[in-house]
Amino acid sequence: MTAITVTPCTGPGAEIGNVDLSQPLSDEDFATIRQAFADHGLIFFRDQTITPEQHIAFAERWGDINVNRFFTPVDGYPEIAEVRKEPDQKTNIGGGWHTDHSYDQEPAMGSILVARELPPAGGDTMFADMAAAYDALDAETKAKLDGLEAVHSSKHIFGGESAYKDSGDVGERLHNADAADALDDVVHPVVITHPLSGKKILYVNPAFTLRIKGWTPEASLALLGPLYGHAMQDEFVTRFEWKPGSIAFWDNRATWHYALNDYQGERRLMHRITLEGCALAA
Ligand code: OGA
Ligand code: MN
Fold first, then answer.
1. What global pTM score does this model have?
2. I need a surface site. Which of 6, 81, 171, 216 has the fewest CB within 10 A?
3. In terms of Cα–Cα distance, which of 127, 120, 113 is closest to 48?
4. Which residue among 98, 113, 258, 266 is best mutated to probe the pocket of ligand 1, counting the most ligand atoms within 8 A of its Cβ?
5. What is the pLDDT of residues 203-212, one digit of tens each?
6. 98 noted as active-site residue
7. CB neighbours (10 Å) of residue 258?
8. What is the architecture, at CATH level 2, of domain 5-275?
9. Domain ranges of the chain
């Protein structure tokens, strides 16, 4: 059998080839994929045909599945969340730069997103590499970030006060009974050491980071705004064009992502399995 290939993308991420995820992976093949995931924080697969059961089996090779509190599960598969946009919905899920679950004490490690129904055109996802973004900061900025912590929250996105909640898109899919768990603010270092790769990572994001701990909103914005502008630069970004059979697996600690909302009037349906993570340290 031909060996698995790992082909780095022009931007962040790598494409894994010569693999069929509908079949159980040998330990050797799994180790190759795991190494690619640690190195790149972002891997893609093409031309896969997998059932929900096979999606779950692949996810379970990596660790425990996080059952999502906010999104509707796929019928019969509580481990799989639907990331759905219907033709009559205007807003989408993930339509701005963010990383999932930074509002949790132990942020989810990552998600395995499988394309199920794609619009005829559009609906790409962009990913940004937060290890590369950190590396490229000047020494003075790195010194300034050293030792800082940031406060993260999901209240303004998923909570009772949020406009998003009442938009009728994401809001009606909340699992309200569990949502309260996510609403307490949490604190993480602004720069973390990645648990798998050991790389330094810029771990703040425009969606869920509220402020630098102990700083005013104004002072926080003055620091975070330019950092975000820096991290969004093209050199740190890959734009992934989904095709039938495409799968993306991102590491929330190493990347941001952004689901483009440029396919109004069309349906897009993805299946997402989220994997449990761990506490993050500087
Ligand atoms: C997500 C998300 C991206 C996409 O599932 O967390 O942001 O392209 N989705 O659907
Ligand atoms: Mn997301």
1. 0.92
2. 216
3. 113
4. 113
5. 999 999 999 9
6. yes
7. 20
8. 4-Layer Sandwich (3.60)
9. 5-275
